């Protein structure tokens, strides 16, 4: 059973009009597809990187799923201190690479798996069946528990989005109830409406205060493969210890030449680095000239720098 690229929603500025739409909470976590061939359970993210080792809570499939073989689609989330899904917290789990640290972090950062689709069931592909049928089959085979949940669907997308905004959550996904699961595709059958905006950006430089990084300079690659400066930030969810760790990491990547094709406003005080580190950035909007307004760091992410590209049509 080879891993597949998941279906993705297109960005929309508003909840779509008309009938036949189902609205779901857009959970701020890590997209994970679970594969069970009847013998072995494997987990892969949306980039087809294996994550079986990172989330042992999900691998005891028989404790929550009655299928003989299955491919499940969902989002792994972790809660922050405010009781809301936190991308920063889930990345603390997703980025672990040492077994001794994982054993500790399983209890420190518990996760939940929010399942919203089934693509393959008992040796039969379901991707051409409509969403409402797949959802019924999903509810038949999943037994929710504290760490395994089924994502609920709502008819009133505008009301759900209002609730999401009131609670400061990421957004919602609207899905046509008769939509097939289009593997590896991004179509209008699924649309996302976000309460706030985010982008994965490349760190191309930094500034120091008292010997510690106090801001990072961010960029995205244009269509020519050139790194374009989009802004800097020194705010976000990183702890003081993580800023110090970031200082050590970036100092080892320093180089003489500016990696950006355009000149940053902090050009004179900046230290340049080899573009290797990527971060998730939350921001208010794009400003004229292709720069971010009010960017803040949410977390380090494991994304290849060359995948961090300038939006062509406002998509983020």
Automatic annotation (TrEMBL):
Keyword Ligase belongs to the record: yes
Q: What is this protein called?
A: DNA ligase (ATP)
Origin species: Scopulibacillus darangshiensis
Which EC number(s) does UniProt give? Answer: 6.5.1.1
Stretches assigned to the ATP-dependent DNA ligase family profile domain: 109-226
Mark the transmembrane ranges: none
* Keyword tags: Ligase
As recorded in UniProt, coiled-coil segments are: none
Q: Which SUPFAM superfamilies match?
A: DNA ligase/mRNA capping enzyme, catalytic domain, Nucleic acid-binding proteins
Q: Which GO terms describe its molecular function?
A: ATP binding; DNA ligase (ATP) activity
* Pfam families xref list: DNA_ligase_A_C, DNA_ligase_A_M
The reaction(s) catalysed by this protein are:
ATP + (deoxyribonucleotide)n-3'-hydroxyl + 5'-phospho-(deoxyribonucleotide)m = (deoxyribonucleotide)n+m + AMP + diphosphate
InterPro entries under this entry? ATP-dep_DNA_ligase, DNA_ligase_ATP-dep_C, DNA_ligase_ATP-dep_cent, DNA_ligase_ATP-dep_CS, NA-bd_OB-fold
Q: Return the similarity comment.
A: Belongs to the ATP-dependent DNA ligase family.
Q: Which GO terms describe its biological process?
A: DNA recombination; DNA repair
> Does the record bear Ligase in its keywords?
yes
